[in-house]
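Write out this protein's structure.
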Amino acid sequence: MKHLNHMRSVAVFVLAFVLTSTVNAQKKWTLEECISYAVEQNISIKRTSLNLENSAVNLSQSQYGRLPSLNGSASNTYNFGQTIDPFTNQFATTTVRSNSFFLNAQVTVFNGFQTLNTVKANKTELQAAESDLQKMKNDISLNVANLYLQILFNKELLRNAESQLEVTKIQAQRIEKLVAAGSQPQGAQYDIEAQLAQEELNRINAKNQLDLSLLNLRQLLLIESSEDFEVVEPSIDNIDKGKMLSTPGAIYENSLTIMPEVKSSQYRLVAAEQTLKASRGAYSPRVTLSGSYGTGYSGVSQELVGITDLGLQPNGDVVQGSNTPVLSPTTIPQFQDKSFNDQLRDNINSSIGVSLTVPIFNGMAARSNVSRSKIRLEQAELDLTDTKLQLRQQIESAYLDAAAASKRYESASASVKALTESFKYTQERFNVGLLNSFDFSNEKNRLIQSQSNLLQAKYEYIFKTQVLEFYQGKTISLKNL
């Protein structure tokens, strides 16, 4: 029994350990996962996707506009008083009920290619909307990458602050013992305590900056604050500094064929040209082919069902010169109401026709539409020029930023290397009492500041080179730095 209880206790402990480990095994997000999730959840991207759907609907509508139109109609009418029955063409003085059923079809044979050019314009508008969506995704991806790298920078900054703080704590304990033994003046303890307080403040500031950068990325991803959120820290110690071999001009020429904002402006220019052609089509004659098929029913319609022969009957005339009446054959026709189905069958009528409409004057509507289309075409040309200009300027700025970041990174690396060696010598002198605590703290602060500058230059260089690669059509990633 004791053995059984022991086994149960072990099982409960193992289960609790597994559950605790599962809870503590918090998901960490890679840069690629953050970008993918942001693209799926971002409201601006969803709004742009709706614009894309609307463009697709416009294209479908214009394509269906080439098909014939078909309409059906049905009516049920009561006529009171004297009227002409539309189906018997006879006068009726009683209440007449009539029904009409019609199908009408019409197709535009020619309208100055307005429909064709409208379809072409809507097709290129759809392509422009697709490019707009890709542009929005690219912008979100860059924002995510920037915030992600800011988190990595703040993490390293926090680790450095914590590491420096631990070293200073050890130095503070040593100084305290030396002061107590009389080997160091009381001022040395005050100096190291001030240094300790400053480094604790640096650690707190670094932690706050890390929390803020995590919050910024969390908010961009639309992740609730109640959910755990942490990012993966890839190994980025070895950074390739030869990524800037391309010139700004070469990068720009390559980007013209791949950047979605350029494609969007190009598509809209083509769409504006097609819209202008469609507007000019309103000057042309319009040829339409139409046809109809219908039938009807009348409540007074009758049909002959038989004839009653009365033989020879006086017809009202007399033989000339006598009073002898003239007899003639006499018959009486027999009628009955014609059935609904028979009338629908017998009253069928159809028509087909061709119409030609020549625009002569329409309140200058066609001319005004053409003028507006010309203005939109000029605007599209300016938009394309402006888009290319902005792209060139962005690439030139990004290239200079990356070049400057590369130089700062190299300079900061050399500075940290030199100050690290210098601080080793300073620490040795301080340990043997050849340097006071004030000068020691100054040298250490110089090293801390240099390390901070190196981290900032490092991540700035990474982001700037990622931007340059992005303009060359490469995927944002930290795997191949």
